[in-house]
Design a protein that fits this description.
This protein has 2 domains: 27-121, Deoxyribonuclease I, Chain A; 160-270, no CATH class. 48% of the residues are buried. With 291 residues, it is of the alpha+beta class. Helix content is 23%, strand content 33%. The strands form 3 sheets. The protein has a 6-stranded mixed beta sheet with strand order 3-4-2-1-14-13. A 6-stranded mixed beta sheet has the order 5-6-7-8-12-11. A two-stranded antiparallel sheet has the order 9-10. The longest helix has 21 residues, at 2-22. Helix 2 (49-63) packs across helix 3 (75-85). It is globular, with a radius of gyration of 20 Å. Keywords: Signal. It comes from Cellulomonas terrae. InterPro entries: Endo/exonu/phosph_ase_sf.
């Protein structure tokens, strides 16, 4: 019987080795940015669409990003950004409002949100309309597309309203959809301008439907617990750098990069850097997708 036991040990060991050999990972590097495409309307955002596209493309390339999520961006800027990044990049743009001025370019009126990936064109692109104030001219959406980057994943972007009573509902709606996707085993990335300050323990309550686990605050000491399925790139974690939730607008963190908690390794990290293009910083979030 000893020989049978030895054979069993060899078979189990071989299967385990094969399983490890077939495991795969991808380092997802997301550039999230409220582009503030407001040429002629804001001194903080006074770059032309051509200048904006060139500067964002340079930042994407220099940072080695493979996913980009944008808010307050002109279709004119998006098209030039795709062209500048080259044939390995694709994306999806959604108009959220038709502007009435020439902030984008003479006669260009399409303004909204976008996602870009260094991968074949997204499929199953959906735009889920979110609740918004009745007086708000711009519509609010969750824009998502299925992408294959070694593994299949869903890439999403959104821009929440400023009034807290509405952005709370928007966060709940987005969190619910992403939790449903996670529940079926799916992987997703969300880059968003939430207009909710996660550094504020009071304001961060609204983001509980998005976050998984402890979050909020300005250090490794958290003050909220999420009910959702996502981890944020700059969320406090074991083994992290000890500084979390870096501000993206003044002293507030409004911009976030989320990953499906059960599909990403606990090695996520985020960094916020200022940009002359916008009143928002560029947020870089990265983590390791496993499958």
């Amino acid at each position: 019987m000893a020989w049978l036991l030895a054979l069993l040990v060899l078979v189990v060991g071989s299967l385990a080795a094969q399983s490890a050999a077939h495991a795969a990972t991808l380092r997802t590097k997301v550039l999230e940015f409220n582009a503030c495409d407001q040429y002629g309307n804001s001194s903080e955002c006074d770059a032309t669409s051509a200048q904006r596209a060139e500067a964002i493309a340079t930042s994407v390339v220099n940072g080695g990003s493979n996913v980009v999520t944008l808010q307050e961006v002109c279709r004119y800027t998006y098209d030039r950004l795709i062209e500048r990044l080259g044939p390995t990049w694709s994306g999806a743009f959604l108009q959220t409002v038709a502007v009435r001025d020439d902030r984008c370019a003479p006669g260009a009126r399409s303004w909204g949100i976008a996602l870009l990936v260094q991968a074949p064109a997204p499929t199953n692109v959906t735009a889920t309309q979110l609740p918004k104030p009745f007086w708000e001219f711009e519509r609010r959406y969750l824009l998502c597309g299925d992408v294959v980057m070694g593994a299949a994943l869903r890439v999403c972007t959104s821009h929440f309203s400023v009034p807290a009573s509405i952005s709370d509902n928007q966060a709940a709606a987005v969190g619910s959809r992403l939790a449903t996707h996670a529940g079926s085993g799916g992987a997703a990335i969300l880059g968003a301008d939430t207009n909710i300050n996660v550094r504020s323990c009071t304001a961060a309550v609204a983001l509980r439907p998005l976050y998984a686990g402890p979050f909020a605050g300005t250090s490794s000491t958290t003050c909220q617990v999420g009910t959702g399925a996502m981890v944020e790139a700059d969320q406090a974690r074991t083994g992290g750098d000890g500084t979390y939730n870096a501000p993206t607008v003044g002293t507030s963190k409004l911009d976030c990069v989320f990953f499906t908690a059960r599909r990403w390794a606990p090695d996520h990290a985020g960094a916020s850097t200022s940009s002359w293009l916008s009143d928002h910083n560029v947020l870089r979030g990265e983590g390791t997708l496993t499958w």
